[in-house]
Design a protein that fits this description.
By secondary structure, the chain is of the alpha+beta class. It has 2 domains: about 190 residues, Galactose-binding lectin (Jelly Rolls), CATH 2.60.120.430; about 325 residues, Alpha-Beta Barrel (TIM Barrel). Helix content is about 25%, strand content about 20%. The strands form 6 sheets. Strands 1, 2, 4, 5, 7, 10 and 13 form a 7-stranded antiparallel sheet that branches. Strands 3-6-12-8-9-11 form a 6-stranded antiparallel sheet. Helix 15 links the parallel strand 23 and strand 24. Helix 3 crosses helix 5, helix 10 packs across helix 14 and helix 16 packs parallel to helix 17. The longest helix has 26 residues. The relative contact order is 0.10.
Length: about 700
Amino acid sequence: MRNLIRLAVALGALMAHAGDIVLFDAAKTPLSAVTSHSGGTFALNGDVLAIETRGNTGYPGVRIAGNWDLSGCNRITFELEHRDGKGDLPLTIRLDNPGADAGKSIGVFVDRIKMPRKGVHACTVALPPTLPSGRAISSKLTGMRATPFQTAGVVADLDAAQVVGVAVYMRQNKLDWKWGIRRIVAHEGDPADVPAWMKLTEKAFFPFIDVYGQFKHKSWPGKIHSDEELKAAARSEEADLAAHPGPKGWSRYGGWAGGPRREATGHFRVEKIDGVWWMVDPEGYLYWSHGPVRVTPSTAITPLDNREFYFADLPASDSPFAKFYTTRDELLYPYYVKRNIQRTYDFSSANCYRKYGTGYYETFADLAHRRLRSWGMNTIANSSDKKICLMDRTPYTDRFELKSKPIAGSHDGWWPFRDPFDPSFRADVRRLMNEHKAEMEDPWCFGFFVDNELSWGGETDLAAWTLESPADQAAKRVFRERMQKAYGTVEKLNAVWGTTYADWEAFLTVCQRPGAGATADLKAFTLEIADAYFKNVREEFKAAAPNKLYMGCRFAGRGPEFAVRVASRHCDLVSYNIYARHLDDFKLPEGVDKPVIIGEFHFGALDRGLFHPGLIKLENQEERGRVYVQYVTSALKHANVVGVHWHQFGDQATTGRFDGENFQVGFVDCCNTPYPETIKGIREVGYSMYEIRSGK
């Protein structure tokens, strides 16, 4: 029931009709009703409110005050002007009640829109219907990226009869943008129909999760209702695996046994052959990496703190199922600790216990290897269960994340950016390499990612964040040395930067970003920080594991060009997490030619009981299988891409993990049952991937 945003080119002025409510009209609304939102600047320019927003300034835009009763409206149209040429313009819209608290999702409706090209566009957004107990129930649904009461928008906690403001703004964007608003009009209409559970009272709705971790109030194909159904699903899958033993013509490691053979070195490596990058397996066969992230029985762990009333049948402390209060996903456990989450329950492992008995873990581990080969996959990707990897039946990779001293002023994404000049940096790489010594010595392990989706900021930010850090920051002291050598005196630096440092000691003690005059030096030192980061990791990595591939830091999306260029000088492969339907438009920066591996991609749908489709929403499971073929085929046809890794093996918990992610993105559901439509697509492309790669 998530809102579908209709986006169309506005061919003329947005026409008002009987029953429409005009919230803003640039030609008529007093400018006094408009205020800056997080630093956005604005001015009237004829019939448009022209707006400029700066990157890395939070949520810049505008807010328009008013007093409107929208209880009879079912949609709202924003007539907007895209005045920039940088590509898709991503905007967030928000409606406010009196006393709204957007940070706590109280008294607001929030949605996101995207304009694909320069020009004037009319963007129509559905408004949420009024539900009898909707706000009361929604106020108790916490810790989930999406809930069963989301009918429209990203956040829908609005009394439509009392709207006192509408805001339009950027959401934590890194770029500067120019755009504008012409009109905002709400339209009367019948509310959308809603599913039966949205009409329930609070008492009837809770608890809404059954003993298997599934949503109680909805039915779908494959939903489990009894332990016997679980066991029947296991028997059915065994028959399917027997009928599909795996692709023919693969080597022991899943390489292309029917293709050209290179030198056998006993280790994985990368090699460019006839203009196309490949991995080469230990026996010398060409290899293309295809597999899922997080192969573990514990994909559906969910926090219980202050939420136990969500669940119908949590086990008593003396139950055999009480053990699943303490099972962990080792990679993600630090994230629970960081957020001070005290109690969790592991529904996916508990369901494996029901399905396979007391030896559930061993059964799951064996099944993981057989499944992957049967599905046409040859890799256990990072963040998977180490014991399953070390069975040496499927090649694998892993990742670790540095925990050395950070640059104090850096923006905290998953973790803050680590200071590569601090002695703790190299020491932490050595520590982590030693912790993974077994994998480093295992020929089935082809390499490691170090870190994940770092916050790089823009081309000056690493240096600027360093200047915003305290005097004992190692990177700041190195920066001072560079500037002393370049300028000699602090007065010369001040003249260029527009700063007022009293002396070189003040360079360390002052913790603020300088003005535009410092841009060239900030760019240069940002590059030096990035170079030190990758160089120091590589040197320590190769000292400990010379035959393993250093696979980079998994850039979020396409990554900032400056960082990609630096990474290409030090990494064996450049890695990206790219969530899209295909990679047809993917390219490396001009002049960079390196093998590339996709560390994460996925898509999901809302037809199987979960509330969030993940980062790419599709219509249903059938489309999911088709788009899987499309994405992997586009990667196989790209000369630089040597593998793709799906995020993730199993669905996340219906009620969310540590950060609320509750995505329908697994190859299997929380009951460890494969999605047949997805598996069909995986097999279609997996069984023929070497023919596609070689153009045969």
